[in-house]
């Protein structure tokens, strides 16, 4: 696993031993970032279920200004710390080693806003729709924002929740990537 492009291009990232995390495959990560293109410049990222941190680190490498990582698994959180240090990105990031719902509530209390949120929960988890609703209800999105959900191909996700609407879906083998945008941002260059 490596950083594909940007300032940290080619940097190898550590991974968690065992099966507690499932890093996003480089080909899927590259496809997602190709879709996002220049939207990363100046973006504020939330990498929920951070795993190794590869998504948030890739975004920082490509021009995002800040990234928040949420990962409750202790070993995975330590790997994220090590990867951030190895890429010299610790000053642009923050790590919350807690449950995703607690983290979302805490970030809302701090009035945090994100232009990109990447969701990659365990594939067998059934909480993704609840997370999408919490993101909207807790007002964590900037006026122009994208939420990306990585799931198993057969996952059943909501199409729309309040002003958050699914605008694109791509498949890579058994993996599905769903893109959501804040409805008011549709005229600002939808995906």
Question: What CATH first level would be assigned?
Answer: Alpha Beta
According to CATH, the fold-level topology is: Rossmann fold
Helix content: 25-40%
Structural class: alpha/beta
What is the number of helices?
5
Strand order of the largest sheet: 3-2-1-4-5-8-7-6
Q: Give the second-level CATH assignment, the architecture.
A: 3-Layer(aba) Sandwich
CATH homologous superfamily title: Vaccinia Virus protein VP39
Count of separate structural domains: 1
Q: Stretches where pLDDT falls below 50 for ≥5 residues?
A: none
Estimate the global geometry from the Cα principal axes: globular
Q: How many strands in all?
A: 8
Major sheet attributes: 8 strands, mixed
What percent of residues are in strands?
A: 25-35%
- SSE order in H/E notation? HEHEHEHEHEEEE
- Provide the gyration radius in Å: 15 Å
For the record, give the distance between the C-alpha atoms at the N and C termini, rounded to a whole number.
26 Å
**pLDDT averaged over residues:** 89
What do these coordinates show?
This protein is of the alpha/beta class. It has one domain (38-188): 3-Layer(aba) Sandwich (Rossmann fold), CATH 3.40.50. Helices cover 27% and strands 27% of the residues. Strands 3-2-1-4-5-8-7-6 form an eight-stranded mixed beta sheet. It starts with 25 loop residues before the first helix and ends in a 9-residue tail after the last strand. The mean pLDDT is 89.
